[in-house]
Amino acid sequence: RIATIVGGMSLAKQERVLRQNPHVIVATPGRFWSLVRQGEDHLSDLAASLRFLVIDEADRMFDRGHFPELKPFVDMLCRDKGDTTRIRKKKRQTFLFSATLMSGKHVSCSSKKRKRKKKQQHQSLQSPLLGLMEKIGLRGKPAICKVERKNENIDEPEHELDSAVKSVQLPQRLKLTEIMCTDRDKTYYLYYFLTQYKGRCLVFVNTIAVLRRVSAILQHLQIQGLSTLHANMQQRQRLKHLDRFRSNENGVLVATDVAARGLDIPEVKFVIHYGIPQTSETYVHRSGRTARASKEGLSLSLVSPREVNQFNLIKKTLGIDSKISTFPVDTAYMPLTKDRVLVASQLQQVMHRVNSKKADKNWLAENAEKAEIEVDFLSNREQETYISDKLQKEINRLSKRLKLLLSKRLVPVGASRKFVTVNLDLLPNADKVVTARDFFTNSRNAHDDLKKGKKKSRKRQRR
């Protein structure tokens, strides 16, 4: 019997599941530790009855500021382990899993002078694995099982790192690409990619504010199958959005790093880094959402000038500088693409102002009622009515303009808009209205375009 214990779900139902004495418990630290503290019968004697302790994403679990409930639970197991009066039924075995768990080996400095300067630092330096062992209370020499690709060093150049040996790997069939652009142009290229290439796509952003802005713009642009995922969502809402994303083979999920680990969503073809991550480990976990189970995948990084140094550091740390190529963009589509995105961005900004004013007014009225204070909302009523009417007219104007732009087919500049030069019999649901995304992506493949772009760049270099 297997039980699932997670936060945000019914506590009474999970208590009933534990009364059935499951053999395997898959749990999140917060809810599991709360049930342990409540004194559930099935969890009362874990120190003596627990045979296997498996911690997935171990490096993230024990990071400072993350999952504080895990430390008291591990301390409880270590404390009871040292108690000689207790009789242990079985010997416990602990497993640590992570795609970015360093092996702890360090490259020696090339200069003797640097060796002398950093001798004390290297002596006291511990790898993340040794640090985790100390936190969990493990002793002795652990058995390390590292999953590597067969004959991985044949085509891969060796890179010496000053900090640690590269011990993290990206999927073998993952294509790494980048587009250098400004912060404002990121949304243009994102919309271009989503309209040109079909397939399940995961878009990663760094903050919730950026997520709300990007998702609102994409929603105005009528991107089908759009969902969001971030840390401030309730558990039920997260599961609902994930199910929606899984059920749509062309779905788009805009998410923060909460979706970078622990999710195994099948058939994710593309991962787009709208915001460059802060660490190389996060880049590995994000990109690892695609190209799973020996399938092809593509990772696209939208790099702004202020993110160039950070992205170069990630490439150097992972040793992938020579593997990242520039993603080819058909510039003939960009003028029409920019017109759409620009109007959608303006519409999002105006609607954001309207919603902010409503939220501020509701917050003031709610807190005034709690404090038993009378607030006169009639003094500025005429001015507020004028502003709201003006904003509503702007919303209507932008909505009509965007609707007109979306009604036109997204075709290259200079191409005829009257005739379709594609065999409609090859298109799915040809009897229905064909959207721009369906029309242009049936015979277009991101991997094929990438290969063509590499061939063109080679010809230019020869010339």
Automatic annotation (TrEMBL):
UniProt GO MF annotations: ATP binding; hydrolase activity; RNA binding; RNA helicase activity
The EC number of this protein is: 3.6.4.13
- Does ATP-binding count among this protein's keywords? yes
Q: Per its UniProt entry, what is the enzyme's top EC class, as one word? A: hydrolase
Q: Which organism is it from?
A: Aplanochytrium stocchinoi
Q: Which reaction does it catalyse?
A: ATP + H2O = ADP + phosphate + H(+)
The identity of this protein, by name, is ATP-dependent RNA helicase
Print the keywords alphabetically: ATP-binding, Coiled coil, Helicase, Hydrolase, Nucleotide-binding, RNA-binding
Q: Where is the Helicase C-terminal domain?
A: 189-335
Q: Which residues form the Helicase ATP-binding domain?
A: 1-119
